From TrEMBL:
Residues 10-133 form the Mycothiol-dependent maleylpyruvate isomerase metal-binding domain. It comes from the Bacteria. InterPro entries: CHP03084, DinB/YfiT-like, Maleyloyr_isom, MDMPI_metal-binding, tRNA_wybutosine-synth. One of its GO terms (molecular function) is metal ion binding. SUPFAM superfamilies: DinB/YfiT-like putative metalloenzymes (SSF109854). Pfam families: MDMPI_N, Wyosine_form. This is TIGR03084 family protein. Residues 171-213 form the tRNA wybutosine-synthesis domain.
Amino acid sequence: MITELLADLDAESRELDELVAGADWTLPTPAQGWTIGHQIGHLMWTDKAAILAITDPEAFQAQPLTGDIVDRTAAEAAAMPGLLELWRDSRAALREHLAAASGKIVWFGPPMSPASMATARIMETWAHGQDVADALGVVREPTARLRHVCHIGVRTIGFAFLLNGLAVPEVPVRVELTAPGGELWTWGPEDAENRVVAPALDFAWLVTQRRNRGQLAIEATGDVAREWVPIAQAFAGPPGGGR
């Protein structure tokens, strides 16, 4: 399983690499205060954080996590000479560490298996790639790799409720998404009263908070589903401001 996930992470990273290689990295993106350079810098920094979490979990946990760490480290990395090559090196190194890792990996959110970490890296690469694509006015063709983004979005339902100070739902939610290829991706029991139905791309935009809820074709049925959709997030850390 990890081999396939890492192959998809490579493919997602290469697509973004091709997008930024000849771009103006000073262009602003939809993330307030972040340029294309900030986006790539953040991915590089997160790769290195994941490597530290795998190789030295005690050192990872001893890091001072100030409230501005994400913005600060993105700005610092954006100013580094040769950032594209640094990102290429960091993602190659992380791939090797994930391929050899076992057990749970400590992280900013709940600890994760190597497979879950690889899935999270796909999600974050896709999400920040969306910011870059928006900055460049590029419409990306969705691929089957969206399933990883959607999967982590579904798996983090309880986490999203906790982050917003709400009780974790005790009832299941059925999620039915139409994939880019037309097939149906599903999670949860078929007879669940709470349901979310959407195109996979819209759901991925929702859980990465890359589009406003009002722009998305998402149908929520049931109290829990309706409460979840506005707060859904696939990333660790406090809820964002959305788009």
